[in-house]
Amino acid sequence: MNTLSIDELKSLVEARPGPFVSISLPTHRANADTRQNPIRFKKLLRDAEERLALGGMRALDMQQMLEPARRLLEDTLFWQRQGDGLAVFLTPKLFRYYRLPLKPEELVVVGDRFHVKPVLRLLTDDSRFYILALSQNQVRLLDATQHGAREVELKGIPSSLAEALKYDQPEKQVQFRTAPGSSGRSGRGGTIFHGQGAGVEIAKDRILRYFHQVDDGLHKQLRDQRVPLIFAGVDYLFPIYKEVNTYSSLMDETIIGNPEELGPEELHRRAWATMQPFFRKKEQEAAAYYRQVAATARASHKIGQIVPAAYHGRVELLFVPVGVQHWGTFASEVNAVHEYEAPQPGSEDMLDFAAAHTLLHGGTVYAVDPQYMPNGSSVAAVFRY
Prior knowledge:
By secondary structure, the protein is an alpha+beta fold. Helices cover 35% and strands 24% of the residues. The protein folds into 3 domains: 1-122, 2-Layer Sandwich (Translation, Eukaryotic Peptide Chain Release Factor Subunit 1, Chain A); 129-279, Nucleotidyltransferase, domain 5; 294-385, CATH 3.30.1330.30. A hairpin with a 4-residue loop joins strand 14 and strand 15. Helix 2 runs antiparallel to helix 3 (59-72), helix 7 crosses helix 8 and helix 10 packs parallel to helix 11.
C-alpha cells in the first residue's frame, strides 16, 4: 500500500499508458462483516473485466493487468485490516491501492485516466486529521475523521525512547515532572528536570534525539500532506517536540495526559472536541470568501470555465460535492470542455479532473457533502487572477 501525497497523486494523474481501471468501495473494519469485503471487490473486478472487454482489450492482456488485484482476494489478513474504504488503481504497468479513513462511493471507472476523486479527500481540508500519541515508552499515529480513528502502521519510526537510543551508553536515570499550573503549551519554562549536574541536560538531549527520529520518520511517511496533526502526551513533552517538528500542520492545541492509558476511541473523542470547531471555521471562512467574490470575474460555478483554469493553475479555492460526477472531456489545446449527461467512451469526471489539478498546482480543495456546496451547484471556484 502507498501513502498518498501530492507526488503520489501526480503519478496517478500523469500515469501512461492505459487503459485505466479505478475501483472504490466502502469496507468493514472488523467482525463478521469483513467477509463481505473481498466478495464485493470480486464483483467490482468482474465489472472492470467486462468493460475492458467491451473496449476491445485482448483477454490475455486483461488477465495480466487484473492479476495483481485478484491476488488481493486470497489475502485474508489484508481484508481483516481495512479502514472505512478502499481505492484501487490499475493499468498494464501500474498497481496501487489505498486504505481510506472514509467511506467512498462503490464505483468502477474504466477510461483514459484514473478516477482519483475517492482519494482526493485524503489531501483536502475536510475533517481528516492525525493524532500523534507520544510518550517515552510508546509512539502511535492515528488517522482520524469526525467519524472515528484507526491506528496507522509506522515505518522507520522508533517505538520508544529505548529503541531510538538502544545503541547509546546507559545514562543515569533522570525524573521529570511538570511545574504546577503549566499547560505544556508555553515553551520550555513549564518543564522541571530533576537530577544532578549534567544529568539534566543529558536527559533532555536524549528525548530530543528520540523526537528527532520520530519527526524524521513522520516526515517521510506523511511527506507533503497538509492534514492537521494534534499531539497527545504529557504536558512537558510537547514543547520539546515542537523544537524538532518539521511537519507544517502541527496544531498548537494538544491532548494532555498519558496517551498510554487512552485507547483509540478516547483519543478520538478528546481530539475531535478540539478539531471540530477548527474544521467548521475553516470551511465557513472559505465559503464566505467564495460568496464575497461570486459575482465577479474572480469566481465561477461553471464547469467550462473552472476546468481550464484548474488545468493551468489558476484555481485558488475549489468546492466539489462528494458522490457527484460530471462527465465530459477536456481538450487542452483549445481549452474546451465537452460535457455529457452520462459516461461516454473516453470521457472522465470533470469534477475529479478539476480537483486533482487544483491540488497539483497548490490550490485548496473542499470535497463536501452536496448540501454544503456554497452556491447549491455542482462546483464552485475562486481564481487566483
